[in-house]
Amino acid sequence: MLPDADAAITRDGKALILAYDHGIEHGPVDFQPNPETADPERVFDLATHDAVTALAVGKGVAEAYYPSYAADVSLLAKLNGTSNLWMGEPDSAVNWSVEYAAELGADAIGFTLYGGSNHEVEMAEEFRDAQEAAREHDLGVVMWSYPRGQGLKNDTSPGTIAYAARLGLELGADIAKVKYPGSPEAMAEAARMAGPTKVVMSGGSKADDRAFLETVAGAIDGGANGLAVGRNVFQRENPEEILDALEAVIFEEASVDEALEHTSTPAVADD
After folding, report:
1. Are 41 and 210 in contact (CB under 8 A)?
2. Would residue 177 show up in a list of annotated catalytic residues for this protein?
3. Which pLDDT score is estimated for 151?
4. Under the phi-then-psi rule, with left for phi > 0, alpha for psi from -120 to 50, and beta for the rest, what region is 166?
5. Which of 133, 172, 148 lies closest to 91 in space, CA to CA?
6. Nearest CA to 76 among 175, 162, 193, 155?
7. Nearest-angstrom CA–CA distance, 32 and 240
């Protein structure tokens, strides 16, 4: 990693990346809870929220929508991704080049690496090429570091998540996106293993407001530098509310109860 290479997609050293690569990775099912988010323009509008430091999208969505939002949204070009129709060992197709992402105006690139997959070696080599090309264009590098594969028994164990974070450092990522390992203490170990590479928590499947914010707060308390989130924002009926709450937790060090004041969820449960 390089100092300040991620400056365009962070704020005060922290990140709230709005991920919207779900159309390829998961398919239309992810838009069903909030059908209007199948329209990328709705999510680009969300990405103009002050809390959002970058929007991660694939090539086609970036081509079609980013030019209209270039002044208000930092683009994280998600270079690889594979449909949920794929049933083989975890792998991820490289769908666009760093050079084209830079030409389109990207501020950083994102790249998935499935450590432990039978395809890990070729994915690491593809990441090498993307990482070095990103340096030529002064772009930050975010690794979606997701250990998966036939030989991996538990992809969210603390040891596995710490290894995922370390892969980000070893291979040259500025930010490593990892799953939450279950506790602030385990997240602290992942952050320690990542060294100067920033660690952000993957948002995961939609949870209720309090449960989600408590997990985010736990990650931040453990040393995470922020969050990369999709469904836990855009699947909500009022996604702006949860972005307000996340801004409070990540950037203002607010408590969960204080953050919940930004939502329609009661901050303190009734007796």
Report:
1. no
2. yes
3. 80
4. alpha
5. 148
6. 175
7. 18
φ, ψ dihedrals at 123, nearest 5°: -65, -40
268 pLDDT tier (thresholds 50, 70, 90): low
Dist. CA 42–CA 29, nearest whole Å: 17
| Strand bridging mode 175-178 / 226-229 | unpaired
Mean pLDDT of 186-202: 98
Q: How many CB atoms lie within 10 A of CB 268?
A: 8
Rounded to whole angstroms, the Cα distance separating 149 from 175 reads 22
pLDDT tens digit string along 63-107?
Answer: 999 999 999 999 999 999 999 898 899 999 999 999 999 999 999
**One-character DSSP codes across 13-82:** TBEEEEE--HHHHT-GGGGTTSGGGGSHHHHHHHHTSTT--EEEE-HHHHHHHHHHHTTT--EEEE-B--
Buried b / exposed e across 204-229, counting CB within 10 Å, b at 16+?
A: eebeebbebbbbbbbbbebbbbbbbb
Contact 261, 228 (CB under 8 A): no
Under a CB-based contact definition with an 8 Å cutoff, are residues 251 and 270 in contact? no
Q: Are 73 and 44 in contact (CB under 8 A)?
A: yes
Query: What average pLDDT does the segment 260-266 reach?
Result: 86
Phi, psi of 228, rounded to the nearest 5 degrees: -120, 115
State yes or no: pLDDT of 21 exceeds 70: yes
Choosing from 177, 179, 198, 206, which is the catalytic residue?
A: 177
15: which strand partners? 226
CA 152, chain centre distance (Å): 22
Please check whether residue 57 is in contact with residue 23, taking contact to mean a CB–CB distance below 8 angstroms: no
